[in-house]
Write a structure and sequence with these properties.
Blueprint lengths: L2 H40 L15 H11 L10 H17 L18 H22 L3 H32 L4 H6 L4 H6 L1 H14 L11 H4 L9 H26 L19 H22 L5 H29 L6
């Protein structure tokens, strides 16, 4: 076989990967700008407004500043693990997008176990944080890593049960099928509490306010990131915001209809808008709620965080698995 028989498919795949990663990195950069602007408006102040018109070049200035800073590695740290930890966190936030469908047929890897793939990748995210906390050789960093590990593992349980509830209705692990599957109206209404539990759990899973205990500036001075600087810190920062966008995409696919118009309305002018635009708009709505929550709610205590996960979300999500299963069997709504 000619080398071109291997080269062209590889080039196509690389171009497809870049078509996902480049807009994602731009979105991550301007999510930081949007967060500061929205929080500024909610707190009756300006937000970024100096670098460029309306402060639009602020993310580029922040990135350039971090890129030119010196990378400081503590003398007592485990150097290799210390550097690998942020790289792992950032890498995992990107590879999950391989199975995310942006429109019907517009997906990098249309595998039949896409939901399991996403769940596996999100579960691996805790390792980067544990590595950072241990390798830093700092008590503050280690405490932050332990907090984060307990928090992420706890809320992954409720996230998994919510996913199971949706998959029972859909009858497929393929994310395209999750979006396009027919759902009875009663089931749609009953899934609304699962939407709330899933979204709150994603706040805890991404260590976002009001569950940002691993980074608690007031008590552990930044948690697992306390020893990081320049681009190693930036990779953690980029990974956190990329995970926010990923979790918003998962919320959109599981509960908000993915790339389909709102409420499945196939009427002009709604059906004239391309699917990826609807998908991006729904993700933007979820991200706005992320920012809204940060601007308005106080931080939870750690015992409140754990109580919510194990004593509230876990029993309710378990009950909903039984309830939805019973309704599907009783009314013969089982997916074909």
């Amino acid at each position: 076989m000619l080398w071109t028989d291997y080269a062209w498919p590889t080039i196509v795949i690389v171009l497809q990967i870049m078509a996902i990663i480049v807009p994602l990195l731009v979105a991550v950069a301007y999510l930081t700008y949007a967060e500061r602007k929205v929080m500024g408006a909610m707190q009756m102040r300006q937000g970024p407004m100096t670098v460029g018109p309306f402060g639009l070049l602020q993310p580029l200035a922040d990135g350039l500043k971090l890129l030119t800073k010196e990378t400081i590695i503590p003398s007592g740290s485990s150097r290799l693990v210390f550097v690998l930890a942020p790289m792992m966190t950032f890498f995992l936030s990107l590879v999950a997008w391989a199975v995310i469908p942006f429109d019907d047929g517009m997906v990098l890897a249309d595998i039949n176990v896409g939901v399991l793939y996403l769940f596996a990748i999100s579960s691996l995210g805790v390792y980067g944080i544990i590595m950072a906390g241990w390798a830093s050789n700092s008590k503050y960093a280690f405490l932050g890593a332990l907090r984060s590990a307990a928090q992420m593992v706890s809320y992954e349980v409720s996230i998994g049960l919510v996913m199971i509830t949706v998959l029972l209705v859909v009858g497929s692990l393929n994310l395209t099928d999750v979006v396009t599957a027919e759902r009875p109206l009663l089931i749609q209404i009953l899934l609304l509490p699962m939407l709330v539990i899933f979204f709150v759990s994603t706040l805890a899973e991404t260590n976002r306010h009001p569950f940002d205990l691993p980074e608690g500036e007031s008590e552990i001075t930044g948690g697992f990131m306390v020893e990081y600087s320049s681009m190693t810190y930036a990779l953690f920062f980029l990974g956190e915001y990329a995970n926010m966008i990923l979790m918003s995409a998962m919320t959109t696919i599981l509960f908000l209809g993915g790339w389909l118009p709102p409420f499945g309305l196939d009427i002009p002018p709604l059906n004239w808008i391309p699917g990826p635009i609807w998908f991006a708009a729904k993700i933007a709505l979820c991200l706005f709620v992320f920012i809204w929550v940060r601007a308005t709610l106080p931080r939870f205590r750690y015992d409140q965080l754990m109580r919510l996960g194990w004593k509230v979300f876990l029993p309710i999500s378990l009950l909903w698995v039984v309830l939805i299963s019973g309704l599907l069997v009783a009314f013969d709504w089982l997916p074909a």
